[in-house]
Design brief:
The complex is a heterodimer of chains A (539) and B (127). By secondary structure, chain A is of the alpha+beta class. Chain A is 62% helix and 8% strand. Chain A starts with a helix and ends in a 19-residue tail after the last strand. Chain B has 127 residues and is an alpha/beta fold. Chain B is 35% helix and 17% strand. The longest helix of chain B has 13 residues. At the A-B interface, helix 9 and helix 10 of A face helix 1 and helix 4 of B.
C-alpha cells in the first residue's frame, strides 16, 4: 500500500469513528422520528474534515453515517439512503465553497462567513434532509404526514452543525498567518476572562428553571454583548468558540428542561432554541470575519509602510551619497568633468530606481482597488526580452544567457506590464541566483507564448512555492536576509492573471528555480481568472 | 569583487548586496585614498577574509541574500584570525540596533547614510 493510500485509509477510519461518536451524542437529543436530530454535529465534523484534512475522504462520512443509522435501527437500504444524503451534503458543501467562494477554512473574510452560511449551512443541508427523510418515507420508517416536521428538524440540525461545529473545528486548526504575532499574555488573559464570562452568562441565562428567581428576566438576547465582544476582539476564532460554548450550554439546558425556550416537548423547545442560535451564530460569525478582515487589512498596511520605508532607504542611500559626492566635487573644483558627469548620470539612475519602487507601491494600491489598467498593443517578446537584459548593470548582464527563438513572438499585451513581469523575475533570479548564470528562454506553445527564467541559486522549498506569490511573502530560505518589498511575485501574478496567462515555479532547495510565464497571444480576456482575488479592470 | 591593485593590505572590506550602494561607497572611499574591497554578501566576505590580510575596518550591510549581517557576525566571532576586525553595520532597518548580535560591533549607521558620517567613521579606524 502506498503512503498516500495508507494515509487516506487512516483518515477515512478516523473520520468514520469520530462521526459515529458525535452522531451518537446528537441522536441522544430526542431524535424526531428516531433519526432526525435537532443537533447534528457530524455535519460540521464532515465539512471541516473534507476542507481541512482530505477532500477525498468522503468514504469516512459514508461509513460513519451508515453505521450510525443502522445502529439506530434503520434497515440496510434506509441506512444506505441516509448515508448517501449525508455524504453528498458534505461533498457538495466542500466543493461549492472551494469552487464559488475560494473559501478559507479560517473564515477570515466576510465572503467566507457568507459562503459558509449560504452554500453550506442553508444550501447543502437541503440535500441531506431531503434524501434522508425520503429514505425514511420510502423505507416505511415514517408516515408521509410526519415527513414535514422530520424534514424541518433534520435540516435545522444539519444547519446548526455547519454553523456551530464546523467553524469551531476550522478556526481552531493551526494555520500559518504571516502577519499575525503570537498572542500576548494580556490577550490570553482577556480570552480566558471572556470565555469564563460567556460560560457563566450562558449557564445563568439557559440553565435556569422557570420557578427560579428572576427567571422571566433571563432573556436569551442578553448573551449578545459577549458574542459581540468575542467577535470584535478575537475574530472568527473568538466568534466560533463563543457560539459553540453558548450553544452547548443552551442545548444542554433545554434538554434538561431549563432556559427560556421551553415549550412542552423537547423537540419543540429545541426548534426555538436552534432558530435563535442559528441567528446568533450567523451574526457572530459574520461580525468575527469582518473584524478579522479589518485587522488583517490594518496589519497589511502597517507592514507595507514599514517594508516600504525600509526598502526606499537603500537606493536613497546611493542617491544621497552620489549627490554629496557631486556637490563636493563642484565645491572643491577637484573633480574631472568625466567624474562629475558620472555622478550626475548615477544620480539620474538612482532617481529612476526610486521612482520604480514608488511605482511598485502605487501598483499595489491600484491592484488592491481593482484599478490596474492594461493598455493592449502588439508586442514582440523577442525585442522586449533583449531590452530588459540590456537595461541590466554590466556585471548582471554578463550572467544572463538569453535563448530567444529566431522568429518574433508577437502578441497582444500591455508592453510596460509584461516588461515589469520579466524585469521582476529576472532581478529575482539574479538576486537569489548565487552568482551563477541565469537562463532566459522564449518559446511558443500553440496560441501561448512561454517565457522561462532559470537560476541555479538557493531554490525554494516545496512548501513555499505557492505562498511566494502572496503579498509580503518570501520563501523561508531567503526571508531572513532578503531584500525588496516581498511584493514582486505578487504583482507579477496579478499582472499575468489579468492578461489571462499563468505563472508557476519549479524549484529544488539548493539547486535553483525555474519561473515560467505563459501568456495567450491574443488580447486578454474580459475577466480575470476565477482564482484571482481582486478584479482587475481592462480597456 | 574588489578594487584591488597591489598586495598591500586593504583598509576597508565593504559588504553590501545592493550594487548601487556598493559601487557608490567604493568610489567615495577610493576618492579619499582608501583601498576598499567590495563583496556582495556575508559568505563572500568570509571567503575574502580567509584569503586576504586583515582589513582595518569592515562596513557591513544587514539584510543580504545567502548570508546576512547577523550570520556573518556570528561566524566572524568564531574565527580567531579576524574576530577582532572593527565592524560598522550600515543598515536601513532601525531595529537592528536592538539585535543581540550588534553588541560586538563598533557602530551602527542608518541608511540613508551621510557621506561625511561614513568618511569620518572610516577615518577613525583607518588613519
Amino acid at each position: 500500500m502506498s503512503t498516500m493510500t495508507a494515509r487516506r485509509f487512516i483518515i477515512v477510519v478516523a473520520l468514520a469513528g469520530a462521526y459515529i461518536l458525535v452522531a451518537r451524542f446528537g441522536l441522544a437529543m430526542d431524535a424526531v422520528s428516531g433519526f432526525a436530530t435537532l443537533v447534528w454535529p457530524p455535519t460540521g465534523l464532515s465539512l471541516a474534515a473534507l476542507l481541512l484534512v482530505d477532500e477525498d475522504a468522503w468514504a469516512g462520512v459514508a461509513i460513519g453515517a451508515f453505521v450510525t443509522n443502522a445502529w439506530a435501527g434503520a434497515t440496510v437500504p434506509v441506512a444506505l439512503g441516509i448515508a448517501l444524503g449525508n455524504t453528498l451534503e458534505a461533498v457538495a458543501a466542500a466543493w461549492a465553497l472551494r469552487r464559488f467562494a475560494d473559501f478559507h477554512p479560517s473564515i477570515d473574510r466576510l465572503n467566507d462567513a457568507l459562503a459558509l452560511v449560504a452554500l453550506a449551512a442553508l444550501g447543502s443541508t437541503l440535500i441531506s434532509a431531503t434524501i434522508g427523510v425520503g429514505s425514511l418515507v420510502l423505507g416505511h420508517r415514517i408516515d408521509v404526514e410526519a415527513a414535514g416536521h422530520t424534514w424541518r428538524a433534520w435540516w435545522l440540525g444539519d444547519t446548526m452543525g455547519d454553523l456551530v461545529v464546523a467553524p469551531l473545528l476550522m478556526t481552531m486548526a493551526p494555520v500559518r498567518r504571516s502577519l499575525d504575532e503570537p498572542p500576548s499574555r494580556r490577550r490570553i488573559v482577556e480570552a480566558l476572562a471572556l470565555e469564563a464570562a460567556t460560560i457563566a452568562s450562558a449557564v445563568w441565562l439557559f440553565g435556569a428553571r422557570s420557578n427560579q428567581p428572576m427567571a422571566s428576566f433571563r432573556e436569551a438576547y442578553m448573551i449578545f454583548p459577549l458574542l459581540v465582544w468575542a467577535a470584535l476582539r478575537f475574530g472568527s476564532r473568538g466568534a466560533a468558540v463563543a457560539t459553540f460554548s453558548t450553544s452547548a450550554i443552551a442545548i444542554a439546558g433545554a434538554a434538561s428542561g431549563r432556559g427560556p425556550f421551553l415549550h412542552g416537548r423537547l423537540a419543540d423547545s429545541l426548534v426555538s432554541l436552534q432558530v435563535f442560535m442559528a441567528i446568533a451564530a450567523t451574526t457572530t460569525l459574520i461580525l468575527g470575519a469582518i473584524a478579522q478582515e479589518r485587522r488583517h487589512a490594518l496589519a497589511l498596511r502597517d507592514s507595507l509602510l514599514s517594508v516600504a520605508s525600509h526598502e526606499l532607504r537603500t537606493p536613497l542611500s546611493a542617491l544621497q551619497l552620489r549627490a554629496q559626492m557631486l556637490t563636493r566635487g563642484m565645491i572643491h573644483r577637484d573633480a574631472s568633468a568625466e567624474r562629475l558627469e558620472d555622478d550626475a548620470l548615477a544620480i539620474e539612475r538612482h532617481v529612476k530606481r526610486l521612482s520604480g519602487l514608488v511605482e511598485d507601491l502605487l501598483d499595489i494600491s491600484r491592484i488592491m482597488a481593482g484599478r490596474l489598467r492594461l493598455q493592449i498593443e502588439p508586442v514582440d517578446l523577442n525585442v522586449l526580452l533583449r531590452e530588459v537584459v540590456d537595461r541590466l548593470a554590466p556585471e548582471e548582464r554578463e550572467r544572463v544567457r538569453l535563448e530567444a527563438t529566431g522568429a518574433s513572438v508577437v502578441g497582444q499585451w500591455d508592453r510596460s506590464r509584461v516588461d515589469q513581469v520579466v524585469t521582476n523575475l529576472l532581478s529575482n533570479a539574479i538576486k537569489y541566483g548565487a552568482e551563477a548564470p541565469v537562463e532566459v528562454s522564449l518559446g511558443c506553445d500553440g496560441d501561448r507564448a512561454r517565457i522561462a527564467i532559470r537560476d541555479q541559486g538557493i531554490g525554494i522549498a516545496a512548501a513555499d512555492q505557492e505562498r511566494i506569490f502572496g503579498r509580503f511573502e518570501r520563501a523561508q530560505e531567503s526571508s531572513k536576509n532578503a531584500v525588496g518589498f516581498g511584493l514582486g511575485l505578487w504583482i507579477v501574478k496579478q499582472i499575468v492573471d489579468a492578461a489571462g496567462g499563468s505563472v508557476h515555479v519549479k524549484s529544488e532547495l539548493g539547486k535553483g528555480s525555474i519561473f515560467t510565464v505563459e501568456l495567450p497571444l491574443g488580447a486578454a480576456p474580459e475577466a480575470p481568472s476565477p482564482g484571482s482575488p481582486e478584479r482587475l479592470a481592462h480597456r | 569583487m574588489g578594487i584591488e591593485a597591489s598586495r598591500a593590505p586593504f583598509d576597508v572590506l565593504l559588504v553590501e548586496d545592493d550594487a548601487d550602494v556598493r559601487e557608490t561607497l567604493g568610489i567615495a572611499l577610493t576618492d579619499e585614498g582608501y583601498r576598499a574591497a567590495l563583496v556582495s554578501d556575508g559568505l563572500s566576505a568570509l571567503e575574502w577574509l580567509r584569503t586576504h590580510p586583515k582589513p582595518r575596518l569592515i562596513l557591513l550591510d544587514w539584510m543580504m541574500p545567502r548570508c546576512g549581517g547577523e550570520s556573518f557576525l556570528l561566524q566572524r566571532a568564531r574565527d580567531p584570525v579576524f574576530a577582532d576586525v572593527p565592524t560598522v553595520v550600515v543598515t536601513a532597518d532601525a531595529r537592528v540596533r536592538e539585535a543581540a548580535a550588534v553588541r560586538s560591533v563598533a557602530a551602527v549607521l542608518l541608511k540613508p547614510v551621510d557621506l561625511d558620517t561614513i568618511l569620518e567613521t572610516v577615518r577613525r579606524y583607518c588613519s
